[in-house]
Amino acid sequence: MMKQYSSIKKNYKDCLVLFRAGDFYELFLEDAKIGANILGITLTKRPEGKDGLIPMAGVPYHAVDSYLAKLVKAGFKVAICEQLSPPNKKGIIKRDVIRVITPGTLVDEKVLDKKENNFLISLSVKDDIFALGIVDLSTGNLQVLQSYYRNLEQELMDELVKLHPSECILSPENYTDLNLLRLLKKERGMSIYPFEDWDTFTSNAEEFLKDHFQVRNLSGFGIADLPYAKESAAALIGYLKITQMNKIGHIKKISLATSSDHVILDKSTLLNLEVFSTILDRGSQGTLLSAIDQTQTAMGGRMIKSWLSRPLTSVELINKRLDAVEYFLKEDDLSYELDNILAKISDIERILSRLSIGIGNARDLILLKDNLVSVLEIRDLLKNCKNEIICDLLKLFNKSLRDVISLIEEKIVDEPPVSLREGGFIKSGVSPQLDRLRRIIGGGKNWITQLEVDEKERTGISTLKVRFNKVFGFYIEVSKGSANLVPKNYIRKQTLVNGERFITSELKKQEEIILTSESKINELEYKLFQNILTKVLISTEYIQNASFAVGVIDCLNNFSKIARLNYYIRPKIVYSGEIRIKNGRHPVVEQMLEGGGFVGNDVLLSKTSNQLLLITGPNMAGKSVFIRQVALIVILSQVGSFVPADKAYITPVDKIFVRSGAADAINSGMSTFMVEMSETANILNHATSDSLIVMDEIGRGTSTYDGISIAWAIAEHLVTNSQFSPKTLFATHYHELQKLEQKYPNRIKNYHLEVENINNEPIFLHTVLPGAAPFSFGLAVAKLAGVPHSVIEDALKILEELEKRGVAQAISPSFKELDRNKKISGVLEFIQSIDLENTTPLQALNLIYEIKKKVRV
Amino acid sequence: MGKIRSLSDDVIVKIAAGEVIERPAYVVKELIENSIDAKAQNINIEIEESGLKKILVWDDGEGMDKEDLSVCLLPHTTSKLEDDSLIKISTLGFRGEALSSIAATSDIIISSRPRNQKIAYVIRSEYGKATPISPKGSSFGTTVIVKNIFAAAPVRKKFVKNNKGEFGRILDIISQNALSNPGIGFKLTHNGKLIFNLPAKQSVMQRIRLLLGEEYYINLIPLKFEESYLKISGFICKPQYGSIGGKKQYIFVNQRRIIDHLISTAFKEAYGTLLETHLSPAFIVFLEIPFEMIDVNIHPRKETISFFDRQFIFDNLIKAATQTLTENNLTFSNLSWQKGENDKLTLSYAGRLLKGDPFIREDINYEEINWKNPILQIHNQYLICQSQSGVIVIDQHAASERVLFEKFKEAFKNYRNEKYHLPKALIMHLSYQESEHMMQVLTDMSNLGFVIEPFGNTSFKVEAVPKIFQDREIKPLLMELLEDLISETKLSDIDNKTQKMLAYLACRAAVKAGDKLSLNDRRKLIKELAKYPTFYTCPHGRPIKIELILSNLDKIFKRT
């Protein structure tokens, strides 16, 4: 057996080989040591003739899936080597590898996150171009991307952050590029492997792809003129063909992932807006996604992620989605019923993929059927809908779906067993041969019961019974007392406390007939299953289309649910260049408030007079929340969702950049300021007049003078340069910058956060008001935050000194000064009200006393 | 300006004493009622640990200005009585006790911002010790946070130690308010988990569907009725959706939920024999009665009220319910009444006849039956025989089921499960699913007296069955039993697994509708039935027999 193992292992040197032996999958030699370590199983030894003791470690076959997942998650490739000949056969059992499982080719539903894709990518990098092939084997979705780059790290990472692939394959050549590897390692959780056979498949990528997809040319996929995209696709298909033994029939087309038809949200933007993960703990609680995702199906859950990372730019398409959402919002009973049906649907894409790859069973077919029944229920529910997008989607529910349902219903029993090798899942009446075999068994067992009657009579033993168990099969049992009365042809098999068990040659012959029939039945049912499966798979594309449609319907219905529960409104998509929002709210923060009652705010951005909004105020007042909610409302609008506001007029943007000090990667090796500057540079290099920029406290990471200067210069550049004038929300704590409004009154507008002064305490109202902030609240906030009184007193003194020396010119009066000013004006009023004509000297003295009192307090 | 004012002493005395906050649920009730009175559009409730740790109620209602906020925690203050007359009570909360009672036993923080104020103000009271009022930035509305209630009184806390029950009460209270105020949005979370989120501006039906369930919703029949000053609206449920105890009944008087046996009884009477005697109907009704005709001031927590004219309410409720049932063809009999000269055939008359002097009664005195008289079988479904006082009609299947079930139970109890050994063992070839179920119930089967064992693959060998099944077809009996077990056919009042199986067996083994019965069989069946006089229904809950009283038959045929 070890010889067999060695010859197999030779072909799979880069994998751990799980070698099926009886009821176990075994690892040998080095693999065993690795496996034992990762899986926590016992490392034992196996004597093998002159090979000596061989390390080995094994897992039971019925539990292999979870162990498999652990190995793969640890970054290993695993080759499954199965026993191919039936168990009873004599001689060396035939074995071969039936599948190679890698991190990117995991399809086991128990292991994968239901609402996440599991992406495998192939990457090829040339001097100024890179190309990606992207596939999710569990859904059959294949995309390619080819792009020129200026900054490989930036642009490549932007793509990867949207995918979070679990595996990346490279050409052997690219794999020697250490810089590339170092860069790719930044995408944590992605295993990187060289694909030895890369060149085999890519040298004539065009022909290979045409052959695989059975098409005349590749222009239908949009990639005819993209040589590197074709290479990446070919490499990917080749890799999958090898690891899945060609069973990739469910990958039916290639789509091109272009950037032009959606809003560009780079890595920084997604993180700073906490769209998919939060800054604090990279978790999913408190993200935009968690606030608006109540999709019911796995397809919907994956799709909404994809929609969020690629908001639309086409007004027409946006409005189509909005129309559908409006429709569902109005028809709330319909929406509720739709939701209930969607809740019944499980992951059609993944079930189909499992069946395509060859690891599905009869239960999967029944599951598929049930899902298709629900899909048709959706079609019936929505058939009268007049909305355009929904009508288009309903067209994807082809009538062949009904045929698939009938096929499965007619042939497979309602609740089949898990295994495909032990029969019991094909209905009767499907195959005459099967029925006949079943009858034979029936007859055989009947014969046996008759035997019981006959033998009872013949021997006169009243306690005689014919029984069955898994160990002995059929046997005759009599009580202890009657054991000596049994006829001579009885062969004793087992002695028990209160009985004896025998067999006869006749009985055994009959049993043999039954067993042979059972074995034939198992084989036959398996074959019948494969036939049914093949027929079902003919409709793969129809099922995938229906599944896609269900995902979209789920997303649109989901938006209507969110809109209904949170009182969102429909945004108006306009062309005026304005972004005008009335009483807008932050979709995530408003849901997380204790109690309720988010204070909404208006905003107006335009191409000219309100191009850059300068917002000043302490952070506790809600500056960051305000500027972010504007960006989030724009994203939601362009995704086709309703938005949290009283009114919203949105001109579509082409890119959104969000720069904030808060998310600076501590461990990126660069200083905060450095990170900030390089991100700002990126923004300035890529922004257009249609872009939206959100800057939160630029210039924080350096000295005050430098910071103010840089922030000033950047703001000025954004409004004066001739190449682009993007709409910008610029939040700052440098009050000096407020002077910019005077300098550029037709471009820049000041806003500040409303603060009420009660008993010398600042009360933040969370409202954003036009105009400059009346005073700086730095010290007041410190006091509020609990900084010790003595420190505040000292700070006040130092501030006075600095002001006196004119070093830090306070543009606006400090808090204390304002207070004093108020007092002084009060005294002045008092003095003015004195009627000198009618004041006696004594009264005058008293008045002076009053004045002194007022001034002192 | 001050909306809250102190009550004069005599009013205080007039209001029933003893507003005691006994449990977190009542705190929730008071706070929500305050929010509703404040004309909130949305009310959010956050509960932690069934209210013992935290109760937060936020609303976007009118709020309280600084003045009102500073006195609201004092006892005997309220905004809800226009003058000191208690006669016109139009708001839910009015006693002036609630907030101060809550403040005495907990750490309470109230922040509020009315529409005409730029900022909110906050007051806090820790077990009666107040902190000075302070300003805060906030949106419009009121937030009340009650923390660690009863912390200062460990005795009470122990009393409420059953957390689960308490949250159930809180859920009940919020649901009731959500049902009677479908225009207001309600959002409830418990320990961070969202329980429900009902948007504003919904209909009562939508609320019923979301809060009481799809089944309740499907069985609704709309009810609308007006008579003089009484307005009734809402829904009653189809009779097959009854329940034991008044669990599914919701009575609202002027938007306040009350418990009232008078009303419950009225509806039960209206349903009459449509429901089993031990079941109560399900309904949700809203009564609108002018304040002058009711008195809400009797119960400290306003859970019961008294009516000025009880009889009027009672009669009209029956009328309303009966009318609705009739309109929907849910009368017990669709007997065609002949309109006579001297009696006006109004619906109430029909109703009275249906439930009043027993025209139809269910408890039958079998001794009155003269066995020499013939027993008819009509439509192979019903047995008819003469009794002393009238005519008895019996559903043969239901009767047989009941008889067999009782017999099986007795036999099983006495372990006298005498077996009948099949001359030749029977092989049953089951599907995978069926064999799984069979394996699960093998022990129960053997307890009942079946001898069954696995016989290879998915086959089973049946050697013996309980003696009572001696003359029956075993295979179909067992297959049907398995079917019942798999589909878990509903039975009324039977929880015990074995009893369930016995009930299924009884049903399958019983005389069916459509079986022809010989005279002897009929007699035998009724005699057997007589052994179990207390049972009116078969194990499924369907009636077995009724008796038509002679005197009432006479009435119909004008023989009096």
Could you describe the 3D structure shown?
The complex is a heterodimer of chains A (857) and B (560). Chain A has 857 residues and is of the alpha/beta class. In chain A, the strands form five sheets. Chain A has a seven-stranded mixed sheet, with helices on both faces. In chain A, a hairpin with a 3-residue loop joins β14 (465-469) and β15. In chain A, α13 (332-344) runs antiparallel to α15. The longest helix of chain A is centred in the middle third of the chain and has 34 residues, at 505-538. Chain B folds into four domains: 5-203, 2-Layer Sandwich (Heat Shock Protein 90), CATH 3.30.565; 213-327, Ribosomal Protein S5, domain 2; 360-396 and 515-556, formyl-coa transferase, domain 3; 402-508, 2-Layer Sandwich (Ribosomal Protein S8, Chain: A, domain 1). Mean pLDDT of chain B is 78; it is low at 13-18, 86-90 and 332-359. In chain B, a hairpin with a 6-residue loop joins β5 (107-113) and β6. Chain B has an eight-stranded mixed sheet. In chain B, strands 11-12-17-14-15 form a five-stranded mixed sheet. Chain B contains 17 helices and 27 strands. The interface between A and B is large, with 45 and 42 residues.
CATH level 4 superfamily of the largest domain in chain A? P-loop containing nucleotide triphosphate hydrolases
Could you give the count of β-strands of chain A? 27
Instruction: State the CATH architecture of the largest domain in chain A.
Output: 3-Layer(aba) Sandwich
Examine the coordinates and then state which fold CATH places here, giving the name of the CATH topology of the largest domain in chain B: Heat Shock Protein 90
Please describe the biggest sheet of chain B, giving its number of strands, its sense, and whether it closes into a barrel.
Answer: 8 strands, mixed
**Structural class of the secondary structure composition of chain B?**
alpha+beta
Whole-number count of domains of chain B: 4
Low-confidence stretches of chain A: 808-815
CATH class of the largest domain in chain A: Alpha Beta
Cα-atom Rg of chain A, whole angstroms? 37 Å
Helix content of chain B: 25-40%
Going across the biggest sheet of chain A, name each strand in turn.
13-23-24-25-21-26-27
C-alpha Rg of chain B (nearest Å): 31 Å
Globally, the shape of chain A reads elongated
Q: How large is the count of helical segments of chain B?
A: 17
What is the first-to-last residue Cα distance of chain B?
Answer: 74 Å
Under CATH at level 1, the class of the largest domain in chain B stands as Alpha Beta
Largest sheet of chain A: 7 strands, mixed
